[in-house]
Design a protein that fits this description.
This protein has five helices and eight strands; from the N terminus they run H-E-H-E-H-E-H-E-H-E-E-E-E. It is an alpha/beta fold and about 190 residues long. An eight-stranded mixed sheet has the order 3-2-1-4-5-8-7-6. Helix 2 links the parallel strand 1 and strand 2. About 40% of the residues are buried. The mean pLDDT is about 90.
Length: about 190
Amino acid sequence: MRIIAGKKRGLHLLSPKGDVSRPITDRVKESLFSVLYKYDIPTDMVVADIFSGIGSIGLEALSRGAKFCTFIEKDSKIAVVLEKNIAKANFVKESKVIRTNAFKSGAPVDEEKYHFVSVDPPFPLTRDVSETSQLAGMFEVLQSQLAPDAIVIVRTHKSVDLLDNYGFLKQIDRRKWGINAVAIFQYDIK
């Protein structure tokens, strides 16, 4: 696992021992960021990496020009590795780690609302995608934390089809790579 582009290109990221996380592969991450550039992501944006694991998406966004990233990771053992990766990439000043249940908190905002949010919960937690699911509840909280026209991506297993809308979040694109699917939502309050 490494940062694949930008000012920290080639930096290898630490991973926790065992199979407690399932980081996104370099190939999928590269394909995803190619799609995101169509939406001017992440240049000079405030980013949230929810269910961040070792921080692969958020660190990639920082390397590619995001100005700040809030990492949300509940698991304390993984959060220790995440903090080491942030330090290794020298993004301590541009980062904040919050250890919380993202389904309840979304991505708490300090000053600026988020322009780009990556949501990557464990696959079993995305089986229920209905309007009453915990994922939908998190989207409801998240909407108050988003800047106008923010982009939210959600990685799931390829067999999961998210709803077209969750409140003001409208699905605008969906891609599949291997066993992964990524739905791209835009915050549209118009």
